[in-house]
Amino acid sequence: MTDMTDAAAQAAMKKQFRSMRCDLELQAADQLHQNIQTAAPGSAPIIEAEADAWLVRANAYTQSERAD
């Protein structure tokens, strides 16, 4: 069992969380790209809203990392 008060263990844990967040953001970007490729006429506002939501989430992740 790793002692979580150890600075090295905490750094490794934070790095893993960042990696997981990056993977999630890349999956979202891929999904958005697929939605754009198969979008029906008139659905641009829906895709734009989805992209805006992911942008807000990505900005929140960035702010969270800076706070740490």
What would the keywords be for this entry?
single chain, 68 residues, mainly alpha, 2 helices
Radius of gyration: 17 Å
Give the helix proportion (percent range).
over 70%
Strand content: under 5%
Question: What is the terminal-to-terminal distance?
Answer: 24 Å
Bulk shape? elongated
Written as H for each helix and E for each strand, in order along the chain, the element string is HH
Judged by helices, strands and strand pairing, the structural class is mainly alpha
| Low-pLDDT windows of residues | none
| Largest sheet descriptor | none
Number of helices: 2
Number of strands: 0
The average pLDDT score comes to: 80
Describe this protein's structure.
The chain has 68 residues and is mainly alpha-helical. 81% of the residues lie in helices and 0% in strands. The chain has helices at 7-37, 44-67. Helix 1 packs antiparallel against helix 2. The longest helix is centred in the N-terminal third of the chain and has 31 residues, at 7-37. The protein is elongated, with a radius of gyration of 17 Å. The two termini are 24 Å apart.
Short structural summary:
The chain is 81% helix and 0% strand. It has 68 residues and is mainly α. The model has no long low-confidence stretch (mean pLDDT 80).
Please write out the topology:
Blueprint (H helix, E strand, L loop, with lengths): L6 H31 L6 H24 L1
Helix pairs in contact: 1-2
